[in-house]
Amino acid sequence: MSYISEVRESFKAGDSLATVVVPANDYRDITLEIVSKLLGSKLGGIYVTTSRPATHVVAEMKERKASLNDLYFVDMISLTVGGETGDPRTVFIDSPTMLESVLLNVGLLERRIKAKRHFVMFDSVNGLSIYSDTRMLKEFMNVLANTMRLRKTYTMMLTVAEQTPPELESVLVTLSDRMIRGEAGDG
Amino acid sequence: MKATPVKLDPRGGRPREKSKTYIEGLDRMLNGGIPIGNTSLLAGTVGSGKTTLAMEFLINGAKHGETTCYISVTEPSSKMLENLRTYGFFDDSLVTEGKLNIFDLGIINDRLGVERLDGSYSSKDMEALLGAFEDIVDELQATRLVIDSITAVCYQLPDRGSIRNFIFRLGQFLATFGCTTLLISETIVDASTQTYSIFGVEEAVADGVILMGNVQRQGDLLRTMQIIKMRGAKHSRARHLVELTPIGLSVVPLLKWGQETGTMFS
Predict the structure, then answer these.
(1) ipTM for the complex?
(2) Whether the bond into B78 is cis, omega within 30 of 0
(3) B18-265, what's its fold?
(4) Nearest to A98 among B220, B247, B253 (CB)
(5) How far is B256 from chain A (nearest CA, A)?
(6) Chain A residue with the nearest C-alpha to that of B243
(7) Given an 8 Å threshold on Cβ–Cβ distance, is A135 in contact with B258?
(8) Helix or strand holding residue B204 (H, E)
(9) Which CATH number applies to A3-7+16-154+161-179?
């Protein structure tokens, strides 16, 4: 089954948290494909980016002619690298170490979403692991997973298959309702 | 014989009526808000967000129809107003409609009929100052008050006994009026001891202590808040993160592993 099919099935099944394990080579394509297709299904969305500026993601989405009307961003990287920070649909976090700000700002952005149902895309666990140690990351993921479960928000945690250490993967398996791995060659 | 069911609420009893702060996350920490009539210290170092939080407490109350009052001991009210206009949650009409009243020491001095009050207060001056605060709250029928800062007032009082007496009597009459009050207290960083005030007596007399501070995480400074005590309320004692958002301050629990040992500045 393709990644987007598995995600749709997971969403329909009422899952709260799914981990999407993506191979490094296809990472961008698969990620953008999932978001574009979900937005095309009249869902609203929040895209949390830890590894690329939101402006970059927006540009790629526009290239795919994705509907961006109801997509908002939490950008954890632009202020660190001196990127553009003027986009009104994006909340910029001071530093990628400020993990609590993500929870707080996702909650605020959820109030702006117009669609009845929405998703949160967390791109990616590996991006966060650059700035926070495993112990803290485990705590954050535990808090994030349970917060989203309580809010009944469908959340996807993206991980790069080749870069996820077994300890972190085991935490994701425990916390997630479903591990989505797609099939070889999926885009 | 049937066993009596055990109550799960450790406090039990009937909760006091609360003054909601309407600050995202804080009312949950306070189990509904600050008990009406409580006088609490809002303590913290420079830049920890005390004035912003106190102002939002007043503005949110004013937006819900209450009459609120801010007494600035250290800054002219005009400058305070200019700073307030930079916040999205502020609305000028609250001032023009008399829901948010801002006074500075110059206005208080006029009420006291003295030209200056920048030396040591005599007991007569202290009585006059208490009388002035009482008049302001009574005349306006204010239900929320902030004094910024109580530390600056305390510097004028001759000894710790006078400070204790001043805050105790201030709290007494404000409770009578049902006026919920925040006294802003400046603290200094001391690695070995946690302090809630400069003189060390204010926290003993106050009904509550809300501590604001900073923690370092890999060199980044995060604003924090912790409720140390709040008479009449079952409250959280966990440390929380405070952030200024477009809707005002928001508070969320701080991650436990993200607090570097020995680098907390309150």
Answers:
(1) 0.86
(2) no
(3) Rossmann fold (3.40.50)
(4) B220
(5) 8
(6) A101
(7) no
(8) helix B202-205
(9) 3.40.50.300
